[in-house]
Write a sequence for this structure.
């Protein structure tokens, strides 16, 4: 494959490891590892914000670990009582629509001013509806997304409850962006269908390439859980949407049935999680920090399964990361989760309406069938290696890029 000169569009700084769950960061590096020249094209404020967060992370890292955790927990508690400025500042009626559109136009215009067409073979970006809204360029564009505006506005409470004018504006931006793209690449078949059915993307230009966990590692396979030891882990940056309390209730039901279940909760805790004697609340872990990254891996490796009973989910990075260390997951069928976790192949998928009793029943049956657990663990490991790997992602994207360049009027083929 010839080396390509790729302009990487992003509303964040793709060199920042934590932006958008680490997707732009790892995508850029996966393409660079294949020999392509990838240049970040992002708003100036994203660079400034990344520099400030890096400085803050550095200074926070100088504090003792225990103090850092207490400060993060205090911040999480504070945020629970503060309104989301992003939502509250929208306004009402036509004002909402106008402000969302104006934001998209401003970002599009700023990034367009940074692009010199002769410097690139193509443009690529992750979740780039805003940059593409008014971006005029002769270059072919590949747009990657883990969901669509239609899906996220329907399934995420923070977006679903916004005014109709917000939804109308985001749909317009999404449709315009996808129509500008030479290829629309979705992380799941669900998102691809939405791109075709809701936004008019031609099927031949709509692709599926699985999103990937923020890191690729290997670990020894776990021993099957028993009634004397069942260790669950949940990663829930949004404890309400991901139903942390349902996971806590599941553990308590298992305990009541005589099964020694425990739960490690990564992310902001709820009051119920903090009060349960069977739950260890870790708080936020910043995976760009080596110590937090190692702690996250240690928690996954110490578990038997990931539990994630989400009410809404674009893709499901946490179960993908659990698969990277050979841990199967038990999840809801929200959003892309049934494509990340294959039922009875790499884990267990339950309806989004499933109760804690349903989760407890499935886990009890799994405890009583150690051979099935070993099969699910092996399946999760195999899928992580063969599908949920950055090398596999980059190879598939190269094929899509090559098709775009072949169709481009300029006939650009990249550098020799």
């Amino acid at each position: 494959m010839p080396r390509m000169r790729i302009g990487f569009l992003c509303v964040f700084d793709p060199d920042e490891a934590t932006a958008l769950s680490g997707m732009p960061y790892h995508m850029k590096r996966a393409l660079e590892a294949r020999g392509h020249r990838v240049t970040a094209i992002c708003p100036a404020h994203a660079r400034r914000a990344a520099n400030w967060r890096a400085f803050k992370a550095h200074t926070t890292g100088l504090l003792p670990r225990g103090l850092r955790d207490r400060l993060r927990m205090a911040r999480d508690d504070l945020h629970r009582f503060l309104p989301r400025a992003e939502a509250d500042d929208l306004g009402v009626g036509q004002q909402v629509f106008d402000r969302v559109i104006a934001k998209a136009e401003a970002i599009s215009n700023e990034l367009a001013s940074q692009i010199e067409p002769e410097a690139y073979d193509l443009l690529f970006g992750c979740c780039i509806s805003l940059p593409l809204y008014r971006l005029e360029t002769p270059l072919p564009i590949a747009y990657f997304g883990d969901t669509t505006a239609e899906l996220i506005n329907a399934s995420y409470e923070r977006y679903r409850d916004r005014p109709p004018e917000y939804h109308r504006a985001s749909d317009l931006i999404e449709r315009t962006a996808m129509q500008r793209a030479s290829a629309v690449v979705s992380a799941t078949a669900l998102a691809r269908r939405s791109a075709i059915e809701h936004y008019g993307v031609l099927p031949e230009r709509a692709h599926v390439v699985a999103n990937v966990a923020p890191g690729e590692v290997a670990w020894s396979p776990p021993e099957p859980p028993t009634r004397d030891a069942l260790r669950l882990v949940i990663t829930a940056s949004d404890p309400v949407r991901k139903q942390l309390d349902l996971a806590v209730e599941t553990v308590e039901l298992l305990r009541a049935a005589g099964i020694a279940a425990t739960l490690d909760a990564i992310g902001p805790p709820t009051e119920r999680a903090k009060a349960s004697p069977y739950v260890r609340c870790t708080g936020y872990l910043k995976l760009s920090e080596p110590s937090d990254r190692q702690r996250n891996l240690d928690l996954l490796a110490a578990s038997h399964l990931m539990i994630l009973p989400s009410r809404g989910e674009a893709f499901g990075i946490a179960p993908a990361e659990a698969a990277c260390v050979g841990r199967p997951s038990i999840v809801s069928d929200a959003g892309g989760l049934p494509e990340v976790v294959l039922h009875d192949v790499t884990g267990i998928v339950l309806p989004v309406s499933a109760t804690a009793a349903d989760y407890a029943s499935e886990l009890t049956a799994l405890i009583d069938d150690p051979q099935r657990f070993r099969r699910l663990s092996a399946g999760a490991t195999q899928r992580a290696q063969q599908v949920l790997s950055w090398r596999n992602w980059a190879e598939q994207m190269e094929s899509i890029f090559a098709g775009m360049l072949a169709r481009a009027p300029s006939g650009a083929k990249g550098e020799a």
